[in-house]
Specification:
The complex is a heterodimer of chains A (523) and B (331). With 523 residues, chain A is of the alpha+beta class. Chain A has 16 helices and 18 strands. Classes of the chains: A alpha+beta (523), B mainly alpha (331).
């Protein structure tokens, strides 16, 4: 008996070598050795490497999440900005005059686009006109302009732009600081598809290369002098390049940080504990708020007594511990404490923890379905609420799902849930976002998730959006108080974000816990 | 005369072989066509069974009904299911996988960018598992021939643990020890060749152990065959004895397993990609599923399915070329 009879022929073995050679060759050819020194973020001090959780949208109009906001903060400047205190400061516009339904802005005269062309008033008007065009379907323009029609006019000779809304909207001026209003220069407007791979902005950086799923390399623009003063340290120099690495997994981001492969990352989970504080600066920010929505559309939760009973069953501090790894703080209203016109006094109207009262109120409530997304602390906060309700005798069912499934249920306008934990990231730091999710039109037409129709809140909202300054702020406070008083929402906790930066690298996150690339400094 | 192969009456042997080859090719082609059709239909229907609205995912929770309607129209989701399927098949016929709902990138570009990373990881892990598994299995089989029960027991225990070691646990431990603890390798990324080391070990550990067990068993059988006894009686050098005479007879089972392993790893490196920030197709698919990015999921399913089919065909062909029994049976 020989090898030929029993199986393979010895002479064919080199085929295995071919497989191995092919594998090795493929490894080399696939770009594993692209050799960018920037991967070692801590080694090249003229560059900074930062983690972002997902591929960013490079079209300002499509900005919807934190990764978008971070990337756009470096590429596209806005007319005005919000500083760390929530105050409106100069951006591309050096001065402005605001009324409840219009803003007239005087543009700086030294601003150029990344292609070297001078930014004109008509270019600004064209960019904003494209943003508000319904065909653009920019998801967040409501936070800037409300439900109004918007007209933008330009005077090139005077370098001025006027933005006018069809009705009063007190948030018009701060609305022009949101990342989705970033000004796209004419070359980008001519070819919107090119916005996916190139930048056409007036920001401190321009896009050098984009490798979705891996990295986005931004190069600092020489001659950029019109950066806003956002309240951070001006010391140091901006890096020549900023590399945004897509790192979806927070544990991996921390591994890269401690191995000197990243300089900046945003962390919300327990991996923060692995960061050595001697090598990094950690800044805590509120990325948004978490609240409990009651579905008042066709469920038992339209009864205020039952809503109050649910609120009395929940220890909000315990929820914050469970949902945010002990880093979140109990909040007085759905508006985050760091956002202008947040009303700390609204917390007085939130029902206090009272298990006996909750048990009595909820004795005949029947089954209560809680929905939530596992994106928030793995769903632990929802599990706590289920346990708390069961603790007072409620038959509480929990549907913890991924975000897409949860948001479809939340906005479906059906009575198939009673309670929902809503983690509302607010990277723009806009008061409109949490308020529009708790007042106004109910789903599926609107975004008032709980479908609450609160007359006091509605009346106060009417004042808040038609007035400006302190009067407007007072009215915003009344909205928050009215929502708490009728228990249309239960404010739960902040959504804490930790900005971790290597020593020697500084960055400012003026609003919404979103680091602004233009503020990165070395040294 | 007894014929071992069917030959058409009057045809000459080379014609019969050509006809047989043509028939086999046609059969394989028909099989591939069926798989492709199945993939197209299944990928289209399955993504639509996942709860969640892609338009809502794109537009965000803040979008109003009117904005959602615009987005739905732009994404081509406003037509009936048969209409959408017709559009989808029409585009596929022109080689167009569509564009990502989330990023607007052509799906073809996404696949072109990400697939090489997945292929490299899967291919290198498979080759590494083959080399390490064969070496380990053969060594233990040779050493344990006729004795050393403790070594065999230790081998069985360790490979059993290794084969059942979850990828994410292996990946996490490797990062903690070799990247963060010892600083020998990068903990993630893809910008240099050394970033491949830890993901390959994480992905290849369990298959290596499984393969080593298969090889150990097969080797033990082969070593007792008459031709190996004859070879040993000639006092051949060990390397020649085992590599030239024993190894070829292990390759049928080994390559069959390697084919299955490689095809499985194409879609099975998702966790390693996440742990090591490896920018392969798996991580793009996970992101696409989370955001209900139908075109990306569909494109990835079809391409990965096709690559798996091609690998299977390649392994079949390789085994047929190397194994005379298969050639004779026409398998």
């Amino acid at each position: 008996m020989n090898a030929r009879r029993t199986g393979l022929q010895p002479g064919r073995l080199p085929a295995l070598g071919l497989i191995a050679a092919a594998a090795a060759g493929a490894a080399l050819l696939a770009g594993c050795g692209s050799g960018s020194k920037s991967d070692g973020g801590g080694t090249a001090r003229d560059s900074v490497t930062m983690a972002i959780a997902s591929n960013p949208s490079l079209d300002p109009a499509k900005a919807a999440n934190q990764a978008d906001g971070i990337a756009l903060s470096g590429l596209y400047d806005t007319l005005v900005r919000l500083d760390a205190g929530g105050n409106v400061v100069a951006g591309l516009a050096s001065s402005w005059t605001a009324t409840p339904d219009s803003v007239a802005l005087q543009l700086r005269k030294d601003v150029t686009c990344s292609d070297g062309t001078k930014l004109t008033a008509s270019a600004v008007a064209a960019s904003l006109t494209r943003l508000v065009d319904p065909a653009t379907a920019a998801p967040y323009i409501g936070a800037s302009f409300g439900p109004n029609k918007v007209t933008v006019t330009a005077d090139d000779a005077a370098s001025s732009v006027t933005v006018k809304t069809s009705g009063p909207w007190s948030q018009l001026l701060p609305g022009l600081a949101m990342s989705w209003t970033g000004i796209v220069c004419p070359a980008g407007l001519k070819d919107p598809k090119a916005l996916l791979t190139k930048s056409f902005g007036t920001g401190p950086y321009e896009l050098q290369s984009a490798a979705p799923g891996r990295r986005f390399l931004l190069r600092h623009r020489s001659g950029y002098t019109w950066g806003p003063k956002l309240g951070g340290s001006e010391a140091g120099t901006p890096p020549k390049t900023v590399q945004l690495n897509v790192v979806a997994n927070e544990s991996t981001a921390v591994n890269l940080l401690v191995s000197n492969k990243l300089d900046i990352a945003l962390l919300g989970g327990p991996d923060l504990e692995r960061i050595g504080r001697s090598a990094f600066t950690v800044t805590q920010k509120d990325g948004g708020t978490v609240w409990l929505a009651f579905n008042e559309q066709g469920t038992s939760m339209k009864d205020e007594a039952l809503r109050r009973g649910v609120a009395q069953a929940i220890d909000r501090a315990a929820f914050a511990d469970a949902a945010t790894f002990g880093r979140g703080k109990v909040i007085p209203s759905v508006v985050g404490p760091s956002i202008q016109c947040s009303d700390a006094g609204a917390g007085a109207a939130v029902p206090k923890l009272d298990a006996a009262a909750a048990r009595a109120a909820l004795s005949k409530v029947g089954t209560v379905t809680i929905i939530g997304t596992t994106q928030l602390g793995g769903g632990a906060g929802q599990e706590y609420i289920q346990a708390a309700l069961r603790g007072v005798g409620v038959d509480a069912k929990l549907r913890n799902t991924d975000t897409a499934t949860w948001s479809q249920t939340l906005t479906g306008g059906k009575g198939d849930w009673e309670l929902s934990v809503v983690p509302a990231l607010n990277p723009a730091g806009s008061i409109i976002i949490p308020i529009s999710q708790t007042t106004g039109a109910a789903p599926p037409k609107g975004t008032n998730f709980g479908s609450a129709q609160n007359p006091q809140a509605g009346a106060a909202l009417g004042k808040a959006i038609t007035q400006v300054g302190a009067q407007s702020c007072a009215a915003w406070g009344q909205v928050q108080q009215a929502l708490n008083a009728r228990v249309d929402v239960l404010p739960l906790s902040t959504l804490p974000l930790s900005i971790v930066a290597r020593k020697g690298v500084s960055v400012v996150a003026p609003q919404g816990g979103m680091p602004d690339l233009g503020t990165i400094r070395l040294g | 005369m007894i014929r071992t192969e069917p030959i058409t009456a009057g045809a000459r042997p080379w014609q019969a072989r050509a006809g047989g080859l043509l028939g086999a090719v046609l059969r394989k082609a028909a099989g591939v066509a069926c798989v492709v059709a199945g993939l197209v239909v299944a990928s289209f229907l399955l993504v639509r069974l996942i709860p969640g609205d892609p338009a809502r995912s794109v537009a965000g929770t803040q979008a109003t009904a009117d904005q959602l309607a615009v987005v739905r129209d732009q994404l081509g989701l406003d037509g009936s299911l048969p209409q959408q399927f017709g559009d989808y098949v029409g585009r596929l016929a022109q080689g167009d996988f569509g564009t990502s709902f989330e990023t607007g990138e052509p799906v073809r570009t996404i696949i072109q960018d990400a697939l090489p990373y997945t292929l490299v990881l899967a291919l290198v892990a498979t080759v590494a598992a083959l080399v390490a598994g064969i070496a380990l299995g053969m060594t233990v089989a040779v050493l344990c021939r006729g004795g050393r029960p403790r070594l065999d027991a230790a081998f069985q225990a360790l490979t059993s643990i290794g084969a059942s070691f979850p990828e994410y646990v292996a990946g996490t431990l490797l990062v903690l020890v070799f990247a963060i603890g010892l600083g020998l390798f990068p903990p993630g990324g893809s910008d240099s060749l050394d970033t491949l080391v830890l993901p390959v070990i994480a992905v290849g550990l369990a298959p290596t152990c499984t393969l080593a067990r298969i090889v150990r068993r097969e080797t033990a059988t082969v070593l007792e065959l008459d031709y190996m006894r004859a070879a040993r009686s000639k006092h051949l050098p060990p390397l020649r004895l085992y590599v030239r005479h024993a190894l070829p007879n292990l390759m049928t089972a080994t390559l069959s397993y390697a084919g299955l392993l490689l095809a499985g790893l194409l879609s099975g490196t998702i966790i390693a990609e996440s742990v090591f920030a490896w920018p392969g197709l798996g991580s793009r698919v996970v992101e696409a599923v989370a955001t209900r990015d139908y075109p990306v999921i569909q494109g990835a399913v079809i391409v990965l399915g096709l690559v798996a089919v091609l690998i299977t065909l390649l392994i079949d062909g390789l085994l047929g070329a190397l194994d005379p029994r298969r050639r004779r049976s026409g398998a």
